[in-house]
Amino acid sequence: STLAIGANGTATIDSGDNWAGTVSMTDDVLNYNGTTNGVLNATGGDLNILQNGILTLQGSGQIADAVNVDIASGSTLAIGANGTATINSSDNWAGTVSMTDGVLNYNGTTNGLLNATGGNLNILQNGVLTLQGGSLIANNTNSNEAGKIIVNNGGSITGGINNFDNGQLEIINGGIISGGENTFNNGSTLTIGNNGTLSGGTNNINSGGAIIVGNGGTISGGNINIANGANGTIQNGGTVSGGTVTVDGSYTNNGNIQAGSTTNVNNGGSFQNTGNISGGDVQIASGGEFQSNGTISGGNINIENGANATIQSGGTFFCGNVTVNGTYTNYGEI
Fold first, then answer.
1. Residue 173 CA from chain centroid, whole number
2. pTM exceeds cut of 0.85
3. Contact at 8 Å (CB) between 82 and 101?
4. Which of the residues 150, 163, 194, 235 has the least number of beta carbons within 10 Å of its own beta carbon?
5. Those residues with Cβ within 8 angstroms of residue 275's Cβ, 6 or more apart along the chain or in another chain
6. Is 51 exposed, middle or buried (0-12, 13-18, 19+ CB in 10 A)?
7. What is the pLDDT of residues 132-191, one digit of tens each?
């Protein structure tokens, strides 16, 4: 059976009702406060998911861009197999969106909680999605970002395949990336800001992309691959205390690289230290370039045959181990 809501039509469905068929909405209003439902095909009108309501999109269920959506605090929009929802800046997302499958297109700037463990998440251009308060992207989620994701207090990315094309990912104030395969293509930036942490996952910075570890930001684990044509910068106050950074592009340290970290500079890659290397392993492969006018106070530096390493004027090397099979020039202070 089908309930069709058109111009000047209003329907309210609550937990005492039985919705087993299809609701088709092209205009006007549907108020929903139930917990089980059939198929919703909403292409227009106002959809209000009231407090304690749980609306599930699955099968051929959809909420189109033209629909005005209100996800009230305490309510849930659940996106399952073959369900599709679009939430934009004119909608109100104060409750929870739970996605195990299907598609969520997002082009808003303020949002409630997101629990994405599967499906396809698309952050459209100008969209800003904030993960906080237990929000996460995990498991089998595929996400594509032309907009921006902010991982904030209590938010996390623990898994998924997350692709940024001219998009931005910012980790701040207790936010964390602990997993996933995260790729930053041309024009995209991964920024680890104050009290943000990158502790895991595979993070590919492709040509034209960048990774920035700002003041108070930390890389404590994971793999960071800086491709030819990409840039990595550890700013003053930024810390690398773990993980592996592989450099085929350009990598600059103005902060502190500590014990537990590994830096591999490959053929054609360049590593400039203007900060402090106090520990960890630095491997300069044949064709790789390492320069330092900062401080080296610990760690192990291996300069392979065909590699080039220079301690520039003003640089200091007073502790640590250097193995030289390539070219090593010191204009600084030992």
1. 14
2. yes
3. yes
4. 194
5. 234, 236, 253, 254, 255, 256, 257, 294, 295
6. exposed
7. 999 999 999 999 999 999 999 999 999 999 999 999 999 999 999 999 999 999 999 999
